[in-house]
Specification:
single chain, 129 residues, alpha+beta, five-stranded antiparallel beta sheet
Length: 129
């Protein structure tokens, strides 16, 4: 456990295929490019397993405007990402809000989301079972 949260475990593979992410987070289905890593949290001998995914996706400008209209976005820190994703992160500044997190937190998939409107980049850290 780190900071009261189960530690992320994965194979360290940086992936660029969109389909698995679009299935879990359909809001990213039209991403122009994507990089992500995933795995499980905690120990495999304690069930059920919680899966994690860290995503950096470039989205169309029209979607940036739609997301910015979801609610009052404030300056936020980028969600905590695994070390293998650090090189994928834009410099920011990032915007976010509880309403933006909620937009991506559907069907048992929770998410913490930050938007860099300058680079049209969504940074998402998600959990699901």
């Amino acid at each position: 456990m780190t900071n009261g949260r189960a530690e992320k475990q994965g194979d360290g593979t940086l992936r660029t295929d969109l389909a698995p992410i679009a299935e879990r987070y359909p809001q990213l289905a039209s991403a122009e490019s994507i990089a992500w890593m995933g795995g499980t949290t905690g120990s495999s001998d304690i069930g059920p397993t919680t899966y994690w995914v860290d995503v950096v996706a470039v989205i169309p400008q029209s979607e940036v405007e739609t997301l910015r209209a979801t609610g009052e976005l404030d300056s936020v820190k980028v969600p905590e990402m695994v070390s293998g994703m650090q090189d994928e992160l834009p410099a920011g500044p990032f915007e976010g809000s509880p309403a933006l997190d909620e937009l991506f937190s559907t069907d048992g998939h929770s998410a913490t989301v930050a938007l860099d409107p300058r680079t049209r980049t969504i940074v998402l850290s998600g959990l699901f079972e």
